[in-house]
Amino acid sequence: MAIPGLVLGCFNVFGHFVFRFLETEHHANSLHYNLWNYTDELALALTIIGMLLIAFSKKRHEDELVARLRMDALYWSILINGIIYILLSPFNIPQVYTYNLGTPLIIFVARFNYLLYFKKDLYIIRQLKLLPFKPWRIAAVLLIAACVLFMLVKISKDDNVAAVAFTGLYTGLFMWVFSRNKFEDELTMQYRMNSMYLAVLLNYTLLLIANFTLYGLDFVAIMVYNMVTIPVFFILIFGYYTLKNVRLQEQQVKGGLLL
Q1: Of 36, 105, 178, 248, which has the most beta carbons under 10 Å away?
Q2: 46-67: per-residue pLDDT in tens?
Q3: Contacts of 250 by beta carbon, 8 Å cutoff, 6+ apart
């Protein structure tokens, strides 16, 4: 599914190729309609579903090491994709939003297979290298708050300024995702991995739904929002796990005191 999807997507984007039988009427309103072709939607769906199946289907011999390699590759794919976007954002390249729909999964599949087939025998399960809690987490919160406030009050109508604010928002979210908590242990790291896994699955599930339900400028907005949805979902899910762990520890302490 992934290979035909990628090939069809390239033909559609660079050669404007479409399947005529996928053309249908799309009603803009009660009085007007226009023709809409679903070739690009088909290409995107095939690519994403195929990549998800490659990424998250078990190997014939699945063990703890393979699972850790998978989660390590997933975390690094989001890290590399984020760095690429931050570096390209000053150039204001609109295609970045289009390519971002599939690049995290492509990077993941490439790194996972590299680790699995070339580094598995030499691989040592190490802790992920994260930014220190101070000053990165505090700086991330301040940057996110400032950019969200800027976009809500619409201080400037200049598109370039708005793009800078959006990049700042993404950078703040990126710093939050890859910075440590105040207290970090092996269980916290497992929560991180699970949160990233669920965030990616949730992100692409919603993207596939939007792919066939939204059109034109509405889907362009989804492509823009897709830049930040994975870190936002991660922060929410990881926050839930962290709060749940804190409450569990409090219950254990209370139980120990009662004993």
Answers
A1: 105
A2: 999 998 888 888 877 777 788 8
A3: none
Structure tokens at 243: 């709060």
In this model, does residue 256 exceed pLDDT 70? no
The contacts of residue 108 (CB under 8 Å, 6+ apart) are 51, 55, 73, 74, 76, 77
The rounded Cα 81 to chain-centroid distance in angstroms is 9
The angle that helices 186-213 and 64-88 make with each other, rounded to 10 degrees, is 60
- What kind and span of H or E run contains 36? strand 33-37
The tokens for 128 are: 């992920």
d(CA 134, CA 180): 9
Each residue's pLDDT tens digit, 133-174: 889 999 999 999 999 888 887 765 666 777 888 889 999 999
The CA distances from residue 87 to 43, 128, 210, 257, in Å, are 27, 22, 27, 53
Q: Is residue 27 within a helix (H) or strand (E), and if so which, with residue range?
A: strand 23-27
The residue assigned the tokens 């699972």 is 67
**Residues with Cβ within 8 Å of residue 35, at least 6 apart in sequence:** 23, 24, 25, 26
Q: What would the two tokens of residue 194 be?
A: 């699970």
Q: How far is CA 118 from its chain centroid?
A: 26
User: Residue 37 is inside which H or E element, if any?
Assistant: strand 33-37
